[in-house]
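Tokens for YceI family protein. Go.
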Amino acid sequence: MSADTAVIDGYVAGTWTIDTVHSDVSFYVRHLGVSKVRGHFATFEGTIVTAEDPLQSSVNAVIKTSSVSTNNETRDAHVRGEDFLDVEKYPEMSFTSTAIRPQTSELFEVDGELTLHGVTKAVTLTLELNGFGKGFDGNPVAGFSAATEISRGDFGVTGGAAGAAVSDKIKIALEIEAGLAQS
């Protein structure tokens, strides 16, 4: 299958800036094997380049680890600490894409490198292209949803003594709106 501008409605090539007001970087992890604890990161930034050939597009994003929130300040302090994210030593995590593969005209796999806790590993995001349109100001906007699952152990995030209560697998979900950079 080939993905080209003819099969992607409204496709616009260009450089896009992630709109952090209308985007969300969230995750969930199982706690004690019976419930899911959800959280998100409030501070992040990124650039998406949509190439003339959509399969040559790319994304780069940086997330401030200290911006993690699970709606419980005691838990958040622990997650920011040395047992988990160690935000003093590792203030950022980043993602840089390396390849894009089509699944359908709206679903893609985005391979990339995730750096977390000082460790870089290959990850694949399942990406849904939500569409291209016009914002309230008339400028082009684009929307994407993406998801992946990582092993925190692969990144050296042990959780210390509390690690046994939290699953190794972390599901990550991204809801991204981006605006076309004006030249």
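The mean pLDDT is 93.
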